[in-house]
Amino acid sequence: MIIAIDGPAAAGKGTLSRQIAETYGFQHLDTGLTYRATAKALLDAGLPLDNEEVAEKIAREVELAGLDRDILSAHAIGEAASKIAVMPAVRRALVEAQRTFSQRKPGTVLDGRDIGTVVCPDAAVKLYVTASPEVRAKRRYDEILSRGGEADFAEIFADVQKRDERDMGRADSPLRPAEDAHLLDTSEMSIEAAFQAAKVIIDAAL
Ligand code: C5P
């Protein structure tokens, strides 16, 4: 059984996906990390972000077992990830690895931008998790402050909008809800409320 969770940056997909995977005992893959790991490997090696052939080769070397959100969370890595994510050859390489993962037992939760539309179109449950750009920017802002960091709300807000444009506007696998996805707008929901809403949908499909 595959649970596909898509949505824009900072919509709360990550937390929700982890909770769902834990509750149902499923394996979880945050597919954004595969794009981030590819971007980080390119940046670390001083390789260009605009050479599709080079980026594809690096994408094929990404190890799913070594993905760590703490190491890959830097803002520059997220930016670079969304740039290489427009390249069809990079997407093909990473989607292959993601599909292989999706077959693991006893079931899987994959979260990203194109899981319900491209990676796992036959997923048993598809959720499209979203929230207004303002709410998503505020959540990211609060998260940085709570970790003792400094942040500028206007900058984060502009960033969220830029990332949305790139993810929704690209030609290959743009971010959009699958036709059979359940929409979950978490703008006015707590994490717990979003989880309960997701659970009702998943339980109905089990
Ligand atoms: O979700 P996260 O912010 O870690 O993803 C980083 C970038 O990777 C996204 O902005 C998006 O461009 C890309 N991505 C994608 N398809 C996915 C997951 C992430 O294009 N399935």
From TrEMBL:
It is found in: Cytoplasm. Pfam families: Cytidylate_kin. Residues 3-193 form the Cytidylate kinase domain. GO terms for molecular function: kinase activity. It catalyses: dCMP + ATP = dCDP + ADP; CMP + ATP = CDP + ADP. Keywords: ATP-binding, Cytoplasm, Kinase, Nucleotide-binding, Transferase. ATP binds at residues 7-15. Its EC number is 2.7.4.25. The keyword ATP-binding applies. It comes from the Bacteria. Belongs to the cytidylate kinase family. Type 1 subfamily. This is Cytidylate kinase. It comes from Neorhizobium turbinariae. The lineage of its organism: Bacteria, Pseudomonadati, Pseudomonadota, Alphaproteobacteria, Hyphomicrobiales.
